[in-house]
Recover the amino acids of this structure.
C-alpha cells in the first residue's frame, strides 16, 4: 500500500509538471480510493501538505494559461481587423 501511494504521488507530481491534466485526473481518482483506506495520521498530514503545495502550483499554471488565452484572444481580434481591412482594400481597388 505504501509503495502504491508513493508511486502515485510521484506520478501526480510528474503529471502536474508536464501539464498532463487528463492523466492527473485519473491519478487523483485512484489516489482517492486508496486514501479512503489510509489510517496513518502522519502520512495523511504529509499528503495534505503536498496537496496544498500542488494547489498553489496549479493556481499559478491556471493564471499563466488565463493570461496566455487573453493574449491569444487579442491577437485573434487584431488579425480579424487586419483581414477586414484587406478585404475592404480589395473592394476599393475594384470600384
Amino acid at each position: 500500500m505504501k509503495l502504491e501511494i508513493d508511486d502515485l504521488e510521484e506520478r501526480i507530481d510528474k503529471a502536474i509538471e508536464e501539464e498532463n491534466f487528463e492523466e492527473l485526473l485519473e491519478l487523483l481518482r485512484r489516489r482517492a480510493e486508496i486514501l479512503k483506506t489510509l489510517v496513518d495520521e502522519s502520512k495523511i498530514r504529509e499528503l495534505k501538505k503536498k496537496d496544498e503545495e500542488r494547489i498553489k502550483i496549479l493556481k499559478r499554471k491556471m493564471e499563466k494559461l488565463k493570461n496566455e488565452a487573453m493574449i491569444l484572444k487579442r491577437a485573434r481580434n487584431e488579425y480579424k481587423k487586419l483581414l477586414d481591412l484587406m478585404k475592404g482594400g480589395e473592394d476599393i481597388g475594384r470600384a
